[in-house]
């Protein structure tokens, strides 16, 4: 297609729609997602020599299926597979926002992290080291404020750059889980009906005992590693923030 498709993904209330408005201006319309009453916002952005089709996804905390909003967001990522995903997070509550980011990184590449509400964070005495975050995550990171306009140009620039080159990263789980993922991936690769899916992502979901994926894959590993996988993500987030996030009023680990 002549458009680069972009999904804005993030927790509720982090500023997705505000960024969407900043990127698309008046070039947008509202429809409904098929079969549900969740609003679907679609807009267009022209930047550099490219046209971008931007989707403002419903707010979600995980890539699970526990709510209609979550399912809409997850199905869009899985089945429509946009060219580019911008994960929008709230600089004031960065730790909370990062769990979803890791799930997206397990699923796919071409991801940008937008740390939004940076204006509010500065007022609250919070420092975010964009370079450290980017180095640890292996993806572009932009500090934005949909309120003051800070970082919007950099975000567009990062989108343009990825739409031209593309990147792919996976962060790694502990060895015993990676071994299970590898084993499951080998069996999943043999199933021709799953050829359009990322077998690594399917394997992680099987180990998390995701009902929908167990049914889809026709494999039940019979074990539940959801806790180990969640713990691995939290550990990764702690390490990440140790080097990149400073809150003058509290330590980053005093989360809530
Ligand atoms: P969404 O639920 O992720 O789509 O978030 P919204 O775009 O609706 O924004 C949620 C609230 O945060 C609104 O009150 C916005 O005005 C506010 N907000 C969004 N972005 C920023 C920002 O960069 N800075 C500040 N200070 N407030 C913001
Ligand atoms: K907010
Ligand atoms: Mg919104």
UniProtKB/TrEMBL annotation:
Recorded coiled-coil stretches: none
Binding site for Mg(2+): 21-22, 24-25
Localisation: Cell inner membrane
Residues the record lists as binding GTP: 10-17, 35-39, 56-59, 116-119
Recorded family membership: Belongs to the TRAFAC class TrmE-Era-EngA-EngB-Septin-like GTPase superfamily. FeoB GTPase (TC 9.A.8) family.
Function, in words: Probable transporter of a GTP-driven Fe(2+) uptake system.
Protein name: Ferrous iron transport protein B
């Amino acid at each position: 297609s002549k458009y680069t498709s972009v999904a804005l993904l993030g927790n509720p209330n982090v500023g997705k729609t505000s960024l969407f408005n900043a990127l698309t201006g008046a070039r947008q319309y509202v429809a409904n997602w098929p079969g549900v009453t969740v609003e679907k916002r679609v807009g267009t952005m022209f930047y550099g020599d490219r046209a971008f089709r931007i989707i403002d996804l419903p707010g979600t905390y995980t890539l699970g299926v526990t709510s209609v909003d979550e399912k809409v967001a997850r199905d869009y990522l899985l089945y429509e597979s946009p060219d580019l995903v911008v994960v929008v997070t709230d600089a004031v509550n960065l730790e909370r926002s990062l769990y979803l980011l890791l799930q997206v990184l397990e699923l796919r590449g071409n991801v940008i992290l937008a740390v939004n509400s940076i204006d509010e964070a500065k007022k609250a005495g919070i420092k975010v080291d964009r370079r450290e975050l980017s180095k640890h995550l292996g993806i572009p990171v932009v500090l934005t404020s949909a309120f003051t306009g800070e970082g919007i140009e950099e975000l567009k620039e990062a989108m343009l750059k990825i739409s031209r080159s593309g990147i792919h990263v996976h962060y790694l789980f502990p060895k015993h889980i990676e071994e299970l993922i590898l084993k499951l991936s080998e069996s999943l690769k043999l199933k021709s009906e799953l050829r359009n899916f990322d077998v690594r992502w399917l394997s992680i979901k099987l180990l998390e005992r995701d009902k929908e994926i167990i049914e889809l894959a026709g494999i039940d590993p019979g074990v539940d590693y959801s806790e180990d996988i969640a713990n691995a993500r939290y550990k990764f987030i702690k390490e990440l923030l140790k080097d990149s996030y400073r809150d003058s009023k509290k330590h980053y680990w005093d989360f809530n």
